[in-house]
């Protein structure tokens, strides 16, 4: 919404008419991996989002909250240095933006290469978010997440897969949607 308002203001300042601006916004389909709904099954919606820093994580979670219901969130931290640097802010973002009943899973930090000291783990963030009273879980094996989320999900939930730099995150979100759909078939 803020981007649409900024685009409207910029276009108006450049001389575009409001009807032309409105028409352009109506046809805009969004940006890849920015709160992109991949689908729904069993009344559970799965969204893929590029959120990867505390401010963007808060924004994605707040947007998800507008949909109502519980949020089942996955955050894939990337880089040991950035995660170490943002640790306290990540914990504060999750502790403040998650509601009672929401669930957060963190797989291990995605390593994108380079020289690094591996002195932080997603386990550390999970432990601190739990200490702040939120349901956070470490995903020992990320491949288990679709099954774990499908088992947890119920109608009205929003699954929000967040992170950057890992090109397989959209596939993970699709796998979650498939697992939720398969759980439907198994129940009937």
Report on the structure:
The protein has 188 residues and is α/β, with parallel strands linked by helices. It folds into two domains: 1-30; 31-187, Protein-Tyrosine Phosphatase, Chain A (Alpha-Beta Complex), CATH 3.90.190. Helices cover 48% and strands 18% of the residues. It is built from seven helices and six strands. The protein has helices at residues 2-13, 18-27, 54-66, 80-97, 122-131, 145-152, 169-187; strands at 36-41, 44-49, 71-76, 103-107, 135-139, 158-163. It has a six-stranded mixed sheet, sandwiched between helices. Helix 5 links the parallel strand 4 and strand 5 (135-139). Helix 3 (54-66) packs parallel to helix 4 (80-97). The longest helix is centred in the C-terminal third of the chain and has 19 residues, at 169-187. It is globular and about 55 Å long. The N and C termini lie far apart (40 Å).
Secondary structure elements and pairings:
Layout: H1 2-13, H2 18-27, E1 36-41, E2 44-49, H3 54-66, E3 71-76, H4 80-97, E4 103-107, H5 122-131, E5 135-139, H6 145-152, E6 158-163, H7 169-187
Parallel strand pairs: 2-6, 3-4, 3-6, 4-5
Antiparallel strand pairs: 1-2
Helix pairs in contact: 1-2, 3-4, 4-5, 6-7
Key descriptive features of the protein:
single chain; Protein-Tyrosine Phosphatase, Chain A; 7 helices; 18% strand; alpha/beta; six-stranded mixed β-sheet; 188 residues
User: Structural class, please?
Assistant: alpha/beta
Q: Which architecture name of the largest domain does CATH use?
A: Alpha-Beta Complex
CATH superfamily of the largest domain: Mur ligase, C-terminal domain
Largest sheet: 6 strands, mixed
Mean pLDDT, all residues: 92
Quaternary class:
single chain
Q: What is the molecular shape?
A: globular
The fold-level CATH name of the largest domain is Protein-Tyrosine Phosphatase, Chain A
Q: Considering DSSP H and I runs of 4 or more, what fraction of the residues is helical?
A: 40-55%
β-strand amount: 15-25%
Please provide the count of β strands.
Answer: 6
Kindly report how far apart the N and C termini lie: 40 Å
């Amino acid at each position: 919404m803020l981007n649409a308002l900024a685009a409207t203001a910029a276009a108006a300042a450049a001389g575009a008419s409001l009807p032309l601006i409105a028409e352009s916004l109506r046809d805009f389909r969004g940006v890849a991996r920015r709160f992109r709904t991949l689908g729904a099954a069993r009344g559970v919606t799965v969204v893929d989002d590029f959120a990867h820093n505390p401010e963007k994580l808060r924004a994605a979670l707040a947007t998800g909250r507008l949909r109502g219901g519980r949020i089942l969130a996955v955050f894939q931290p990337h880089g040991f240095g950035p995660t170490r640097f943002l640790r306290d802010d990540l914990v504060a973002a999750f502790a403040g933006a998650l509601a009672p009943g929401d669930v957060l899973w963190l797989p291990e930090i995605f390593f994108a290469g380079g020289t690094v000291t591996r002195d932080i783990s997603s386990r550390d963030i999970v432990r601190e978010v739990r200490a702040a009273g939120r349901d956070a879980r470490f995903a020992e094996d990320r491949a288990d997440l679709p099954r774990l989320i499908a088992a947890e999900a119920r109608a009205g939930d929003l699954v929000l897969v967040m992170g950057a730099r890992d090109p397989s995150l959209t596939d993970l979100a699709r796998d979650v949607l498939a697992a939720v759909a398969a759980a439907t078939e198994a129940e009937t």
